[in-house]
């Protein structure tokens, strides 16, 4: 295992993102369609926040139905994306080492980090990315 491997080698760069004006209903559809758990909220290519599937579960029944039109529409209309997303993010740069990313994630209660270079979102790294990297080492 290389000690100085940058996170750029394991991060996702094909980013599914939300805009500030998007609805929580749209977010739920993206989570389910792409089978993902974290979606950055952006303005242009700058990150404003992060929405996790867990954030939606806290306010809804999102996991209770696979219907295209869930039972959550009424609940979702009570909240804006900005009210539900996490705003005070910790981010890393693409040259941050995988070890440093693992340390950050292990000390905090979240499972994804935005990767930001020069104020622009360039990727996202998750605990799943880390696990897959470790599995390849064996």
From TrEMBL:
SUPFAM superfamilies: CBS-domain pair. It comes from the Bacteria. Keywords: CBS domain. Residues 11-68, 85-138 form the CBS domain. This is CBS domain-containing protein.
